[in-house]
Specification:
By secondary structure, this protein is mainly beta. The protein contains 1 helix and 8 strands. The N and C termini lie far apart (about 35 Å).
């Protein structure tokens, strides 16, 4: 039987292994069989593709700007949260800030 400190160390190493560098999808913060969570540093604009398999949760932790899905445009500021329904579409985020995007 493993000690609780060994189990903790293994879990910590596994979580650290999921963190990747920046990619077109943003910076992967965590991934498991249920969801993926990305950090986007927005300095002008970012495009995020949505498919029919999952909705998106978008939380802005810094900054302000606009978020657009098709013809629907909303202003965002720090602390705002948006849910984007599943479907073949693109989310356009403009402005300056940081967004945490979760794909379920």
């Amino acid at each position: 039987m493993k000690s609780s400190s060994n189990v903790y160390d293994e879990a910590l190493n596994e979580a650290a292994a999921t963190i990747e560098e920046d990619s077109p999808e943003g910076q992967l913060l965590v991934s498991c069989k249920y969801f993926e969570c990305y950090k986007y540093d927005i300095s002008d604009s970012v495009s995020i593709n949505v498919d029919t398999a999952s909705f998106l949760s978008v939380i802005f932790t810094e900054g302000c700007g606009t978020i657009r899905v098709g013809e629907d445009v909303k202003a965002y500021k720090t602390g705002d949260s948006f849910y984007i329904t599943a479907g073949n579409k693109t989310v356009e985020i403009e402005g300056n800030g940081v967004a945490i995007v979760t794909k379920v």
